Amino acid sequence: MSKKISRRKFLVRGGLGTIGVVALGTYVFRNPLRRAMFGMIDSFVPPYSGSGTEANLWFEITKNNTVILHSPKVEMGQGTFTSLAQIVADEFDVSMNQVQVIGAATETGIVDGMSTGGSLSVAQLWQPLREMAATMREMIKNEAAKKLSIDVSSLSTKDGVISGSGKSITYAKAAEGVTKWDVPDTPALKPMKDYKFIGKPIPRIDLNAKVFGEPIFGMDAEMPDMLHAVIVRPEHVGAKYKGANIDEAEKMPGVVKVIQMDNWVGIVAKTYPEALAAKFKLKVDWDVPRKWTEEDIREIISVGNGNEMIVQKGGSSLDPEEEGVETVEFKSPIGAHAQMEPNGAVAHVKDNKATIIISTQVIGVTQKQVADALGFELENVNVIPTYLGGGFGRRLNTSHAIEAAQLSKEVGKPVKYFFTRKEEFQHDMFRPPTHHIMRGKLDENGLLEGLEHHFASGNVAIGSVIMPDMLHGILNADVGAIRGGSIQYSKVPNIRAVQWHNPLPFATSWWRSLGLLANTFAIESFVDEMAIKAAKNPAEFRLALIDDNEDGKRLKAVIKTAIDKAGYTDEVTNGRAMGFAASTDAGAPCAQVVEVSVIDNQVRVHKVTCVLDCGVAVNPDQVKAQCEGAIIMGISASMHEKMTLKDGQLYPTIYGPYDMALMKHSPREIDVHLIQGADVPLPVGEPPLGPIGAAVANAVRRITGKRLTELPLKMG
Amino acid sequence: MKISFTINGAAQTIDIEDTNTPLLWVVRDMLDLKGTKFGCGKSACGACTLHVDGQAIRSCSYAVKFAEGKNITTIEGLGTSEKPHPVQQAWIEEIVPQCGYCQPGFMMATAALLNENPNPTDDDIDKNIINICRCATYYRMRKAIHRAAELTNKNTNAQKL
Predict the structure, then answer these.
(1) Which of A557-561, A582-586, A657-661 comes out lowest in average pLDDT?
(2) pLDDT at residue A547, as a whole number
(3) Which residues does chain A have within 8 Å of residue B29's beta carbon, measured at their own beta carbons?
(4) Which uninterrupted H or E stretch holds A369?
(5) What sections of A416-512 are H helices per DSSP?
(6) Count of Cβ atoms closer than 10 Å to residue A242 Cβ
(7) Per the CB 3.0–4.6 Å rule, which of A518, A691, B131, B153 could disulfide with A434?
(8) b (16+ CB within 10 A) / e for A575-594
C-alpha cells in the first residue's frame, strides 16, 4: 500500500482527477506563511474550470493546535467532510478532535474546478490528501527538529505533538514563525493496518452543528445591512418574459426597488415577507408560444427518435420478429430533485468585487458565471460555499447566483435571494423521462443467448456547464444518461445497448445516479422476466451469466452475499415475496433483496438487504448511511414520484402532491453489508440507487403475476 | 404593532407592521434563530416545525399574531451540546443527520410526540412523524425516536427515585 513518491510526482498526483492545478500551502496563526508546494499542470482545463489558478491553501494550523482542512469538495450530507477528516488525522498524526474541515472559498483555498458529485469526493481525494497530509507532517517535523535541535530521525509524531529525546513540541509551536518551508519528497504512506481512524465508524464531524440547529446552510447566511429579494419566474414551460406592470408592486410596504431585466423581473425589499407580498402585485406579461403536453414529451423521448449511439455491442443483434425473442417496454417519468433547502444565494456586489455565499456543488463554475455576467475579473468574485441542504445534482446549476449578484448590484447592498417551493418544482433541472425497449432470447439450456437494451432519455450531461460539449461530440452519447445502461452479464454472447437522446423543452440534468435508476429498472426487471420464462431462480439465473474475470468475480460476490444474507428464495410465503436485482455503477457492484407484500393494491417494502462492494470504506457507518438513504430515496423515486405536464405547466408544485416516500413508506429493516473488493475507496453515494426499483417490481411479479413496466410502480 | 411572547425561556417583544407575517420569518430574520428552516412555505414539509405551548406547529403558516402571550421553543431552546434534549441525544447516538436541513423540524416533531406519547409504537411513529427528509434518513430516525423514548423514560424514572 505504501510507496515512495518523488516530489515531482507528488505535485502532479495532488490534483483532483483531470483538473489542472495542484497546490499545497499553509497558514499559521492566519499569517500567510504560505509557501510550500506549488505545481501546475495545465494540459487540460475544462470550460468553466474557474478556480484553482491562484490556489493557495489546503491546511491551516491554528494557535490552539488544530488542523483546518480547506476542502475543495462540499458537504451535502454524503459525509465527505468526516471521511476527509479521518484521512487527515491518520496521516497528519492528529486526533479526530484536532481536525476541522471547512469548505474552501475561491479566495482562500483550492476549490474543485469541476464539481462535488458523481460520488467521487473521497475516491478522488484518497491518494492526494493522504500524500499531502503525510508531507505536511514531515514538514512540521523538520521544523520541530530545528527548534528542538534534535535530529529529525529520532522524532515521532502523535496527537499533534512531536517528541524525541525527552523533549516535545506541539505542531502549532513547531510551525510558528516559519516563513520558508522545505518540501520533502512525499513520504511513504502508512500501511492500512496502522490507520486508527480510516476504516472506523467515526461519528460525523458535523453532528453537533446539525443536531443543535447551527446556522450552517446557504439559507442561513447573512451580511450586514442585507435586503431580501424575490424573482418572478414563468409558470409555463418555454414561456418568455415580455414585460411587467410594476406600479402597484413598487408601492408595497418595504419594497426598496423593482428591477426589470431583459428576461426577468425581481423585487428587493427590506424583509422576505414584504418582497413576497409585493410579488403578487406584479402584472407580468408572458409569451407562451405553445402549451407542451405529456404526449409531446413521450413522443420526443421514444426509442428510435433523435440521435442514436451504440454504447455496447457484442455478437449479432436479435431479430424482434424471430420466434423466441421476447420484447418488453419500460418507462420512467420526469423526476424532481426536491432537495429540502431551496436554491438561493446571498450576494454582495460593491465596486468591482462580488461576494457570493451559496450552497453549490460547482464552486468554480458559480464563480466564473457570476464573473462573466458582471464583467468582472475572476479573482474579484469570491464564492464562499456553505453546507448544502441536499444536493443530489440540483446544485450543479447555480444560475440564481448570477441573479442574486445582479440584484445586489442594482441596489448597492447585500441581497438574499432564494426560490419559492413552486419555483423549485417548476424550474428544477429535472431527471429526464426515459423509454426502454428490452429484448432477449433464451438458448436451449435456458440461458440468455441475447440481451438488448434500447433506451431513450432527455439530456443529462449534454449541455451541462461541467461537461464540455466537445466530449459528447466525440462520444455522440450522453455520458450521464448511459449510466447503468450497459449489460453487466458478460457471458451473454449477443448484446446491445443503444442510446437515443433528445433535448426537451425544459431543463433536464443530473439527478443522483443519473441514468442508473431507470436503466437498471428496465434491465433487471427484464432479466427477471427471462428467468421466470426459463423457470430458474432469478439470482442463480444471473450468476450463470457472469464471467469469472475481475469485474465478474466482484459482481458475483455481491450477488452471492445478498442471497446468503437475505436467505433469498423465489417462493411466496404468507403473502410476502422477495425481489432480487443487481447493478454495477461506477465500478461499485451492488445487489439488493427486498421483501414485499401487496395488500389492497398497496405495495409495501418491509425489508431490504443491500450488499455493496465499495472498496475501502473510509467510514463504514457513513457508507451504510448512504446505502440506507439511497434505498429509501430509490423507493420514493420508483414507487411514488412523478412530474407531469398539465395545461403546459410542470406539475405538481408542492410536496404532498409531489408524492414522496415518508416515514411510513420506509422499510422497517435495512440490512447493509459492505464488501471490500478493491484496495481504494469507490463511489458509494449513487450505486445503491440502482437495484431497488427492479427489486420491488420483481417481488410484485412473484406475488401478483403482474409485470409492472412503468415508474412509479402502481398496482391497478 | 407590538407582539409579546416567550421564546426559549426568554421574554420577547417584537414590533411588526404586518401581524400576519409567518412566525417562521420572525424567528429566523428578526430574532436570528436560524435553526428553524424554510422548506416549502405551505405547511407541506415540516422543516419549519417548532413548539408553541408545547405543540408542534409548522411556523411557515402560523401568523405571528397568534403567538401573543404564548411560549415558543425552537431547536436552539430544545437543548444544548452541554445539556442535550433526549431527542437530540438519541439523534447523536444513532448518527441520524445527513445534509441536516430538515432535522431540526423532525426533532421538534419528535419531542412533541414524546410529550403526548412517551412510548410510541412503529405505527404511532408512522402516523405522527410526517415531515419530509430528502436524504431519506427515516430508517435511523425511527431508531432514534425509540431511543429518545427510552432516554426520556429513564430520566423520568430517575427523577421519581
Answers:
(1) A582-586
(2) 97
(3) 228, 271-272
(4) helix A363-374
(5) 421-426, 469-475
(6) 10
(7) A518
(8) ebbbbbbbbbbbbbbbbbbb
Establish if B14 touches chain A: CB-CB under 8 angstroms: no
Place of cell 434505498: A631
Query: What's the pTM?
Result: 0.93
Sign of CA dihedral A12, A16, A19, A23: negative
Distance of CA A199 to the CA centre of its chain: 22
Answer yes or no: is pLDDT of A2 > 50.
Answer: no
Distance CA B135, CA A185 (A): 42
CB atoms within 10 A of CB B11: 8
Write the burial class of residue A716 (CB in 10 Å: 0-12 exposed, 13-18 middle, 19+ buried). Answer: exposed
> Residue written as cell 404532498?
A656
Nearest to B57 by CA among A567, B69, B70: B70
- Radius of gyration (C-alpha) of chain B in whole angstroms: 16
Cell numbers placing A14: 495532488
A391 touches chain B (CB under 8 A): yes
Cβ neighbors of A232 (< 8 A, separation 6 or more) are: A244, A264, A265, A266, A279, A282, A284
Task: Please report residues of B whose CB lies closer than 8 A to that of A622.
Answer: 95
Cα separation, A540 vs A374, whole angstroms: 60
Q: Concatenated DSSP letters for A32-67?
A: ----S-EEE--S---TT--S-TT---SEEE-TTS-E
Cα first-last separation, chain A: 55
ipTM computed for the complex = 0.98
End-to-end alpha-carbon separation of chain B, Å?
48
Facing residue for A654 by CB, picked from B21, B44, B126? B44
**For A533, phi and psi rounded to 5 degrees?**
-60, -35
The pLDDT value given to residue A477: 66
**In sequence order, what are the residues at sequence separation of 6 or more whose Cβ sits closer than 8 angstroms to the Cβ of residue A332?**
A433, A434, A517, A518, A521, A710, A711
Q: Note whether A338 contacts B134, CB cutoff 8 Å.
A: yes
